Amino acid sequence: MAEPRPHDLRRHDAERRLADDVDVWVATASPDGVPHLIPLSFDWDGESLLLATPTGSPTGRNLAATGTARLALGHTRDVCLIEGAVEILAIDALPDGRADRFTERTGFDPRTSTGSYSWFRVTPRRIRAWRESNELAGRDLMHDGHWLDS
Predict the structure, then answer these.
(1) Domain that holds residue 109
(2) How many domains, in total, are found in the chain?
């Protein structure tokens, strides 16, 4: 097992994942507690993750009903876990440049898809990252929407 990464390196690695990864696991639950998990493409602008999914899908309904999501980047031995508040935007509500950036980055343009799509902007409130059990201590990188100091 590798030595645990210092806080600053964990944060750097988490920010790199946000900037470089294209897909994220999105975990939601219905108001009556039925869980749902799905991968979605995303774009990170340095403050929030932008997702798009059909408004009436289980994920769309759950995000709208609860206003929260848990997202996971990476794999089980290098995970970045994000909990955030969700803002729902009509598919035509974003400036073209922001929507175009999402399309270029993900290869998917929900504005031209059949069906009713919405944008879901997830603003992180808590971010945790770890690789092995020796990184469980100190895994919190963000709390209440603010990056923690080392």
Answers:
(1) 7-135
(2) 1
